[in-house]
Amino acid sequence: MKKLMSGNEAIARGIYEASVQVASAYPGTPSTEILENLSHYPDTYSEWAPNEKVAAEVAFGAAVAGVRSVCIMKHVGVNVAADPIFTSSYLGVNAGFVIVSADDPGMHSSQNEQDNRHYARAAKLPMFEPADSQDCIDMMKEAYLISEEYDCPVFFRTTTRICHSKSLVSEGAKQEVPYKPYSRNAGKYVAVPAVAAARRPLIEERMQKLEEYSNHSTFNKIEFNDKKIGVISSGVAMQYAREVFPAGTSYLQLGFTYPLPKKLIRQFASEVETIYIVEELDPFLEEQIRAMDIKVVGKDKIPAMFELNPSILRHALSDEGFADAVIETAETKIQAVPRPPVLCPGCPHRGFFYAASKLENTVIAGDIGCYTLAASDPLLAMDTCICMGGGFTVAMGMAKAFEAAGITDKKVFGVMGDSTFFHSGITGAIEIIYNGGNVIPVVLDNRTTGMTGQQDNPGTGYSVTNDPAEKISIPAILQAIGFQEILKPNPLNLSAVEKALNLALESEVPTAIVWESPCRLIKREEFAPIQCAVDRDLCTSCRVCLDVGCPSIYFVEDQAYIDDTLCVGCTVCKQTCVFDAIKIKKMEE
Amino acid sequence: MLSEKIKESSLIKNIVLIGVGGQGTILVSKIISSALVTAGKDVKMSEIHGMAQRGGSVLTQIRYGENVHSPIISEGEADILVAFEKMEALRGSKYLRPQGTIVVNDYTIMPLPAATGRVSYPSSIVDSLREKYNTISIDAGEAAIQLGASRVMNVVLLGALVEGYNMTEFDWDRALVDNIKPQFLNLNISAFAKGRQLAAETIIQAAI
Ligand SMILES: Cc1ncc(C[n+]2csc(CCOP(=O)(O)OP(=O)(O)O)c2C)c(N)n1
To answer: DSSP characters for A417-439?
Structure first.
């Protein structure tokens, strides 16, 4: 029977069926569940890498050594991994090597909306783009055949809607794939200039052959109906097009999108009257097709930013004379107010940011993780956030700027989480010591990769398969780098936090702060079964407790309440109450 | 050409579920889709849950019929909306077609800006919904507490959906068995029945 699978489950299934033996990934929405699912299949070694560059290198190494491999990451992860990816295109593979890039049009959970199809073109790699979960399985298996036949990594580009939508699939059997013996071949795998230059023409030859494949690939197919309107599309955008264009429309569905099947496109173009190119984000197909001197309707009508959907498409094409009338909605008189994401009740990040928000003249260069939520109301305790690992180094640049401008009263903190520290924060800590920055690095070690759903990392002591792993000490790393004083107060104890912040600011030697306190959502941790409650007699409704930004505290008719179903008894609110009106009680079952 | 298209798309049913992270919308969508798959329907389901664990709103969309293309439902296309929280019903109502049906849980979860008094949580939500949509309002929170576990509120709402959208032809017993741990099965079967009963009563009342 057919099974309902998300794209991420299906990608994992495809990797398994293709007999991939080494899989390395770094978490990131919408890609995270791929490795999580894959780690439950037998016979595939799965690991969380410290970052995406490591994941790409591990997978490349495995492919060279003779087993099929995959690296998996979100779209911005490809930026981190770009260096090995670009050169692996020159060196090629032995066994198959696939790079999965999960893009996030609409930025549901990302810092930007980059269209990673450009990577395939820039790195000269063949690319697949699934349009549903069945494609995820089928294309993944094909990707390994292509990788091995054409001796190159294959780029597998998916998007949030594919990853997180479920559709029906038929599972296949696991393929038998023999080991490909490895022997040293420096003329192929050692990328010195002479080798790279010798291999450079081979890439062009390969891309030409791949264009031939593209013309005949079963994943690129023409469906002729009447020939007035033709649509060229790929990925989930094709599903939207099929909803919006009239019956009788002809389609050229592209699943293998780089290099483009130029012959097939010309054939399609020569037979249909008007061609529409329906693609999400950049005019990737469109620019290449226009360069073939083919007239098309595309981004002149269809938005080039944010996620598409059938409604947006219908609006965009409303004056083309064929799309259904734009669908009406009935608006209610009153509207919902926003429900912004917030730090969870009991989050250890809250204590530090609350205390820091009370310090004068601070600059806090932040980073990406749950703690980025401290930038918003009511904590308002962050100045910048650009990319993973940028916390310490952006702080360094700011400190150097203040120094250059003669500003001496700014207290500069660089802040990041444990997973981010291992990902790319260590080099920033080195920068601070090596170049003498007036910056206090702060690691918010909640013992997990929180934002993406509690994945283990090199500091947690566990692997992706929940097996014990070496637990790497953040304080020991900082010490080795040259921080002479490392403060480790409990971040949920506000006076300890304040004391540590002041000590660090007054310190004569390079000082770092590491808060060690587990995320409340980590399943294997145990917590004291206590909660907070408001003492009606003592509460003056002063609302100071609201400044900690805890979702369990609320006011009704000027009376404070703490929601029993949410509060986990971290006591940060209690510590802010000068009337002692918040009490501790045993947790209700 | 156009009419054929409309015929094709009217055979597709569109359900939207909306709630707040932690309310169990995902489990309900799993139960629904498993019943649909068992019945041999083509099904697509889409979830946006990036920030769910941080108390944000969670939206799940389910489409079924003979041949479903888009996994997502655009504004104005949903036949029925199930809102696990009252204000989320307002947020999700834009997906409903005019005169569509809402099953709304008369239950409040304060978002932080409202809890702190920076904005106010809207009042008369259910009345406002009634003006525009066929509205079935039930107190699933209270029903779940009476059954002995507030966490089965989600399955009470599932029962209300099945009654309110007349999805009784599917094999719900099997879908519950397939998706719920044995030790919680009886509780959930009761919750499901309770939801159907509450919705049926509301519908009858509206008819009188
Ligand atoms: C290059 C890159 N890879 C992955 C992500 C996805 N991502 C966002 S936050 C985060 C985890 C942060 O974990 P940690 O630093 O431990 O902080 P926490 O969320 O636990 O507070 C990840 C992996 C990203 N934004 N950028």
So the answer is: EHHHIIIIIHHHHHHHHHTT--E
**Domain ranges, residue A306:** 220-316
| Whether residue A467 is found in the same domain as residue A545 | no
User: Contact, A120 vs A91, CB < 8 A?
Assistant: no
* Residues A311 and A254 occupy one common structural domain: yes
Work out the minimum CA distance from A404 to partner chain B, whole angstroms: 40
B49-52: long-range contacts (C-beta < 8 A, 24 or more apart)? Answer: B49/A164, B49/B21, B50/A29, B50/A30, B50/A108, B50/A109, B51/A109, B51/A341, B51/B21, B52/B21, B52/B22
Same-domain status, A76 and A15: yes
- B181/A contact by beta carbon, under 8 A: no
Residue A343 in domain = no
From the list B45, B50, B93, the residue facing A29 with the nearest CB is B50
Q: Residue A337: closest CA among chain B residues belongs to which residue?
A: B121
The model's pTM? 0.97
- The interaxial angle of helices B182-207 and B172-179, nearest 10 deg, is 140
B50: domain range? Answer: 2-207
Q: The complex's ipTM?
A: 0.93
Residues A87 and A203 in one domain: yes
Q: What is the pLDDT of residues B89-113, one digit of tens each?
A: 999 999 999 889 999 999 999 888 8
A542 part of contact set with chain B, CB < 8 Å = no
Ligand 1 centroid to A110 CA: how many Å?
10
Handedness of CA A154, A160, A163, A169 (dihedral sign): negative
Interface check for A335 against chain B (CB to CB < 8 A): the answer is yes
How many domains does chain A contain in total?
4
Residue A371 Cα: closest atom of ligand 1: 21
Interface contact flag, B121 A2, Cβ < 8 Å: no
pLDDT score of A516:
95
- Average pLDDT value over all residues in chain B: 91
Residues 108-147 of B with CB under 8 A from A: 110-125, 128-129, 131-133
Structure tokens at A556: 């009704």
Strand order in the sheet with A220-223: A220-223, A250-254, A229-234, A274-278
**A372 with A227, same domain?**
no
Structural domains counted in chain B: 1
Domain CATH number, residue B22: 3.40.920.10
**Orientation angle between helical segments B153-164 and B140-147, nearest 10 degrees:** 120
Q: Please name the residues between 457 and 516 in chain A that touch chain B, using a CB distance below 8 Å.
A: none
What sign results for the dihedral spanned by CA atoms B25, A136, A53, A104?
Answer: negative
Q: Is the predicted pLDDT of residue B2 greater than 80, yes or no?
A: no
CA atoms within 13 A on the CB side of B189: 12
Q: What DSSP state is assigned to residue A544?
A: G
Coil, strand or helix at A403:
helix
> What is the CA(A27)–ligand 1 centre distance, in A?
7
